[in-house]
Write a structure and sequence with these properties.
homodimer, alpha/beta, Rossmann fold, Hypothetical Protein Tm841, Chain: A,domain 3, 6-stranded mixed beta sheet, 8 helices
C-alpha cells in the first residue's frame, strides 16, 4: 500500500491532527471527530451539519466556515459517523434556530443521521434533514437504496449555507437545500480503483485499457466497464446520462462542477471542463458558474465526476454570497 | 495510458481551452499559450511573468491574478516555454515600470527566459530575473545545473506579487523575490512515477514497497530509493535534509507548504503536515503561515514535497496581502 500514513488505525486521528495544525480558524476535536468553526454557535442562525465517511476530502471538513457548514462529522474511511458524534455536532452548532442535517444518501449515513436527529429532538433542538441523491448512474447500488449522493453535496452545502447566513428560517434553509438537490445531477467515471488504508489493496480490478462508467465515490460499481475513450466521448457519455434524466436547453442556466476523484491531475479536469462547456453551450445552456478541482474525492482514485445544477436566480444569488472555508472562499 | 485527453498532440491546447471556459476573469491565448489577467497591464505597476513546462498545475496559470502573477507562459508538458512566447507575455504585462521574470532553475527555462529578457531589453522593457532553486535534494540533476526550482516558486510569486501590487520598484520586487528564494528549502518524496501524455508510460519503475527520496517534479532521480516508511519517518528524512541545509530554531518564523505531487489525497497531505508541525514546534520554530494542498504537481505522481521558508516580518506582511487568483485567494 503506497500511502503517507503511520498506521491504518491512527489514520483519521492523524489527519485531523494535521488539519487542526494547519487551520487555527477551525476547532477540530480529534477525539469526538467533530470539526466546527472556532468561536461556537451563532445565536439565532440556523446551524448546518454534514458528515459521512472520510476519504472524500475536502468534503466535508473543508466546507466548514462562514457561509457554508457550521460543523462536519467525519466517520472512519468510507464509514458513517455515529449518532452520538452527529448529536454532539448538532448541539455544538445550535444557536436556537434549529439545525439542518445535510446527508448523502447512503444507508448507514441516513440511519445514523436520523437517529441523531431524534436524539436532538429529545433535547429540544429542531432538526430538518436534506437528503442528497444526485448520482444518475445507478439506483439501489451496493450501499444505497435509491440514488447515491455525490457532487451535488457541495452545491447544497454552499447554497443552503448562504441561506442560513442570510437569516433564513429552518424551513427556508432546508427547502432551498432540497431544491438544489432536486435540480442537480451527477455522473462519474473511474480510471483506477481506490485503496483504503484498512484494506491496503485496490477495491476492484480495472484492466489497463478500461474505465468504470458511473462509478460511486467508494468505488461501487457503476453501469459497467467500457474501453477507455477520448475525453470528448467520455464527457458525452456522462452528459447523455445527466441530460436524459433532466433535459436542459436554450435559456437554462447551470452551475457545473468538474470534480477530480483524488488522483487525477487538475490539467485533465480543465480539459474535461472544456468539453462539458462546449457541449452545453452547443445546446444553448448557459454555464453561469463553475468549479473545477478536487471537491468530493474517493481517496486515490483516478477519475472524475460531472455535476450539473439547473440554477434559478435565487440559487445563483446565494452561490455568489461570501464564503470563507478551507476549500471554497470568495466574496468580501 | 489512463488519462482524460483527446490526443497527446492537442493536450495543452485542450487544457487551455477548458481553463479559459472556466475562468472568464483570465485572458487565455491558446495559440500563443499565454495566460494573463483580463483587462491588460496596469500602468506604473511592475509586471510579473512566470512559466515553465506544463504538468505542474495549478503552477503557474493558477497564480495569475491580482496580487500575484500578471502572466504565465505554459510550455508543452515538461518542456520550457519558447523565447517568443515569453517575450509576448512580457510585452503584454509591461506597464512601464519593468517586468520581473520568475524562473525555476532548469537549463531550458533559464536559457529561454534569458533570451526573452534580452529581446525585451532591445524593445526598451527593463527585465529583472528571479531564479528559484530551493530543492535541497540534489545538485546538478538531469535537467539542472545547480539546485532545482520547486515549491518555493509559490512563495516567491505570492510575496513578490504583493510587493509589486504595493507599488514596489523593479529592484524592490526582484530583491524580495530573491530573498524569499534564499530563505526557502524544499524536499520531495515520490511513491509512484508520473506518465506524460506523449510518453504514455511511467517515467521510471518504482517497486511496490519503495519510494524515491528527493525526487524532482519531472520524476528526475533524487538521493535514492528506500523502503516505504511510516509518514513520521518520511517527514523526518525531508526535514533533516531541509534543516541541515538551513538550521532553524527557537524564535524563527516559517511559512510551510505541504504540497501534493498530483495523485496524493488531501487527507494524506494533512497527515504529513501534522508531522511537520509537531517536529518544527518541537524545535521551537513557529509556523506563522501554511499551505496544504496541490500547488506544484508532477502530473499524476503520487508523492509530496515539503517547503519551508524562514520568513521575516516583511515577507509575512506581503504574504498576508490580498490575492485573487484561481489557486490562491484571500484578503479583501
Amino acid at each position: 500500500m503506497k500511502k503517507f500514513l503511520n498506521t491504518p488505525d491512527t489514520y483519521l486521528r492523524d489527519v485531523l491532527t494535521g488539519l487542526a495544525a494547519a487551520h487555527p480558524e477551525l476547532a477540530v476535536d480529534a477525539d469526538q471527530k467533530i470539526i466546527t468553526v472556532a468561536g461556537g454557535p451563532q445565536r439565532g442562525k440556523v446551524g448546518l451539519v454534514s458528515g459521512g465517511g472520510s476519504g472524500h476530502e475536502p468534503l466535508h471538513g473543508g466546507f466548514v466556515g462562514a457561509g457554508m457548514l457550521d460543523a462536519a462529522c467525519p466517520g472512519e474511511v468510507f464509514t458513517s459517523p455515529v449518532p452520538d458524534q452527529i448529536l454532539a455536532a448538532t448541539k455544538a452548532v445550535d444557536g436556537g434556530a434549529g439545525v439542518v442535517h445535510i446527508v448523502k444518501n447512503y444507508t448507514g449515513d441516513v440511519m445514523n443521521f436520523q437517529m441523531a436527529a431524534e436524539l436532538a429532538g429529545d433535547e429540544g433542538i429542531a432538526v430538518a434533514t436534506v437528503l442528497v441523491d444526485d448520482d444518475v448512474a445507478v439506483k439501489d447500488s451496493t450501499w444505497t437504496a435509491g440514488r447515491r449522493g455525490t457532487g451535488a453535496t457541495v452545491f447544497v452545502e454552499k447554497i443552503a449555507g448562504a441561506a442560513a447566513a442570510a437569516g433564513g428560517s429552518l424551513d427556508d434553509v432546508a427547502e432551498i437545500g432540497r431544491r438544489v438537490n432536486a435540480a442537480s445531477r451527477s455522473f462519474a467515471v473511474a480510471l483506477t480503483a481506490c485503496t483504503t488504508p484498512a484494506a491496503g489493496t485496490p477495491g476492484f480490478d480495472l484492466p489497463a485499457d478500461e474505465m468504470e462508467v458511473g462509478v460511486g465515490i467508494h468505488g461501487e460499481p457503476g453501469r459497467g466497464r467500457e474501453k477507455l475513450k477520448p475525453a470528448g466521448e467520455i464527457v458525452a457519455i456522462a452528459l447523455d446520462a445527466i441530460l436524459s434524466d433532466q433535459p436542459l436547453g436554450t435559456g437554462d442556466d447551470v452551475i457545473v462542477m468538474v470534480n477530480g476523484l483524488g488522483a487525477t491531475p487538475l490539467s485533465e479536469l480543465y480539459l474535461l471542463f472544456g468539453e462539458v462547456a462546449a457541449t452545453l453551450s452547443g445546446n444553448g445552456v448557459g454555464i453561469a458558474r463553475s468549479l473545477v478541482g478536487n471537491y468530493v474525492t474517493s481517496l486515490d482514485m483516478a477519475g472524475a465526476s460531472i455535476t450539473v445544477c439547473h440554477a434559478d436566480e435565487e440559487m445563483l444569488r446565494l452561490w455568489d454570497a461570501p464564503v470563507r472555508t478551507v476549500a471554497l472562499r470568495w466574496g468580501s
